[in-house]
Amino acid sequence: MEFAGSHMLSVDQLERGDVERIFAVADRLEPYARRRRRTRVLEGAILGAMFFEPSTRTRVSFGSAFNLLGGEVRETTGFEQSAIAKGESLYDTARVLSGYSDVIAMRHPTAGAVAEFAAASRVPVINGGDGSNEHPSQALLDLYTIGRELAGRGRSIDRLRIAMVGDLRYGRTVHSLCKLLCLFDRVQVVLVSPSELRMPEAIVEDLRAAGHEVVESDALEASIAHVDIVYSTRIQEERFQSQAEADLYRGRFRLNQSIYTRHCEPNTVIMHPLPRDSRDNARELDDDLNDNPNLAIFRQTDNGLTVRMALFALILDVVDQVEEHATTVNWYVGGRTS
Amino acid sequence: MEFAGSHMLSVDQLERGDVERIFAVADRLEPYARRRRRTRVLEGAILGAMFFEPSTRTRVSFGSAFNLLGGEVRETTGFEQSAIAKGESLYDTARVLSGYSDVIAMRHPTAGAVAEFAAASRVPVINGGDGSNEHPSQALLDLYTIGRELAGRGRSIDRLRIAMVGDLRYGRTVHSLCKLLCLFDRVQVVLVSPSELRMPEAIVEDLRAAGHEVVESDALEASIAHVDIVYSTRIQEERFQSQAEADLYRGRFRLNQSIYTRHCEPNTVIMHPLPRDSRDNARELDDDLNDNPNLAIFRQTDNGLTVRMALFALILDVVDQVEEHATTVNWYVGGRTS
Amino acid sequence: MEFAGSHMLSVDQLERGDVERIFAVADRLEPYARRRRRTRVLEGAILGAMFFEPSTRTRVSFGSAFNLLGGEVRETTGFEQSAIAKGESLYDTARVLSGYSDVIAMRHPTAGAVAEFAAASRVPVINGGDGSNEHPSQALLDLYTIGRELAGRGRSIDRLRIAMVGDLRYGRTVHSLCKLLCLFDRVQVVLVSPSELRMPEAIVEDLRAAGHEVVESDALEASIAHVDIVYSTRIQEERFQSQAEADLYRGRFRLNQSIYTRHCEPNTVIMHPLPRDSRDNARELDDDLNDNPNLAIFRQTDNGLTVRMALFALILDVVDQVEEHATTVNWYVGGRTS
């Protein structure tokens, strides 16, 4: 796709070359994200972070990514606006708000609302999550993380072996990640879920149509024995008919250091879209994994910053100007690396 | 008036020369608002956007206007502050908050609160709306839009023919606009409203005292036949004694493309302070007007950015420094023009 | 202490030399805080203002302080984040959010939460208030104000005579201030409170162990006769068993101009952590003190800006670079001095 001036609404817009282009730009921007350098390439540009549903981490991640390129951020954090309550159309909201910024990152509780907004917007719009539908920058940061983790292990996204664990039915994260995996070659996917929460058949068919090997299971330990990545997701209690059933599955899909050591190959990477639950008996990933260097969950959020910088740089067409606006960082950054 | 260091609380502060000065500065700043150029003239300055009542679009418009001049924005979006709940006076709030910024844009639900705040503030304050009272930057952007739309048609604010339609009793927008029109010559004003919602007599008298011609009516179609501008406003259901009466008037004041074509002169400009209602049977301006090039409602909000930039530049006394801090825009701005 | 890269969680971290270092840096930064100069020393740096409890003035003060050094601010204003509601640990929140900024200022309703967050953070954290526990930048700005006010009177923090008035039991402000006073010499402290709201015994003992003279009283007028500073605090009604008792004490501890003139030495300084109550019969400091030049309450909040700038400059290790990134202020600042 041509990135300059385009919306980024869905992973369906992307071909393999587009994904590789985004990742190549992210690699170039990594020194800026990690504070080894800084750039003012977007000085004077304005991001409208229009979050019509609260999401501190995604909102701050988009905003910080824009700041790291030198730009300013104007934002909103919820349906605070009486105008919307008064029955204004998304068309009008988009026409007005798109006059105030150079690019918009938008979250909305309703599936399809971001695309409807984008159709009326006069500036490019990045979907920051629209209900159960899409959250493309999350899928991209997940795949970017997979690529980087595997590169350090002499492997690649092609021929990836990945187990996805948990609620595969409602999790938009794993759906979008599967769509992106269809752009690559010979992936082995193990889908581990309660039977009520299996991956939608259409996505399984897409994976197989892409030539990938798909296995479905409801048992964690055997499923994670021969994979490069364990991608864990939250299982929400309310998905089950009874508390007893919910407790049964939670216990069965909980990963801790002991299970990891006994069942996984050495250096198997652990991922999660976050937040993970920290309440007793509701954990997907135990705290005793926090010292495991293969726990990549915070490298994922760090990579989110880099990937979002790449999207902004591509969409606003400043990739080749980043270095000429670069200077060194002159303040304390000692403890920053993750 | 002397703008440097002054508050902007009410259109009553302004003489004709002041309005023309603001508009001349807005014209000079337009290339910066539209991204043909950028300037860093206020780099390091801080706007305090103190919105004690939510209003996404006005808050973001002020903030973006300040960013477009190179400044930073600190803001609040509601009565989040326990201090106010604890009974702090506006005097104290103003003394404290005015120490944190170089200029303040403030919205407050109570009429007169912004003036009370400004009296204690140590920096200039711009009224961003205080209840039913004033919203001077809205009146200025409306008049600025009228001037620009008419200039393209070989006409001017002097000798303007305008129809104001809807709730003329409670709408602070039309009240302030009438006050500004009193500064100009030989305006013809047609006031179209339900009898319960007529323009306050004092304002009608002001218009007549200024030498303007005023006609009152409760019929839309005849009233818009010979005007340059149709300025439509929202009629709120709760203003009427019965739903039946509300429905009657809503239907009667609704403008759509068919009525426009049959009754208006060619190129009659359509304006609205927004938001317009998008619910069936509650529309003031139908969606089928969206393709009408004379629908100026989004040019109004765009002009709001420019007018607010002009107010900041005048009050902070940097008008003559804008160009020397200017550079070119180096990112994608393709689809931005409205 | 070594400031570069350190957290600032509690006044207990500070020795006398540390306090003097902070104040010396604040003195150097004062021209920038007061708009006589500006600096871009932190251009490109990002502050994460993570306020998980609303506090407009503290949040804006931290944000403006960072802007005044040239940096950007990303922030949140409450528990808007569904992630926390879903049971995420502070450890995870800290790991994620600390990847998005160079330094964090955090407020949290729970005592100890900021320290727990800081332990997992990858960047320095400044405590902006954690429940009843600590608010070190408030204590520092109070002591800095005392030092500046006294310097103009030929006196100093050593040998200070101070009356603390009001709720001394629950007020974290006076507790932290007492801890800092223990670092200085021969202070005379008069503690004026209802018997139910006396200063905790441990703090009184600390003051005496530091060689200070402590007198406790429940009568205002005699207690303020021979002091340099009257530090007044709010008494909350709900602390008392009956309304009658609350009214009794409120009346007894209320300071106004008449009492000041009759009982205080000339030029006795009046301080208060703010907000002060403006409701009739609930005032600690009457409005008729507003014209008294010894009322230092707004100089306190102004000094808060300067002290927070100093903390940022020390923690991010840019103190010696401030001047080389300095320029002159080019906009209107006429009425700014307090």
UniProtKB/TrEMBL annotation, chains A, B, C:
Organism expressing this protein natively: Pseudohaliea rubra DSM 19751
Family: Belongs to the aspartate/ornithine carbamoyltransferase superfamily. ATCase family.
SUPFAM superfamilies recorded: Aspartate/ornithine carbamoyltransferase (SSF53671)
GO cellular component, one term: cytosol
Pathway as given in its UniProt record: Pyrimidine metabolism; UMP biosynthesis via de novo pathway; (S)-dihydroorotate from bicarbonate: step 2/3
Residue ranges occupied by any Aspartate/ornithine carbamoyltransferase Asp/Orn-binding domain in the UniProt entry: 160-314
Catalysis performed (reactions): carbamoyl phosphate + L-aspartate = N-carbamoyl-L-aspartate + phosphate + H(+)
Protein name per UniProt: Aspartate carbamoyltransferase
One MF annotation (Gene Ontology) recorded for this entry: amino acid binding
Domain Aspartate/ornithine carbamoyltransferase carbamoyl-P binding: 7-146
Entry keyword Transferase: yes
Listed GO biological process terms: 'de novo' pyrimidine nucleobase biosynthetic process; 'de novo' UMP biosynthetic process; amino acid metabolic process
Coiled-coil regions listed in the entry: none
Signal sequence, start to end: none
Function: Catalyzes the condensation of carbamoyl phosphate and aspartate to form carbamoyl aspartate and inorganic phosphate, the committed step in the de novo pyrimidine nucleotide biosynthesis pathway.
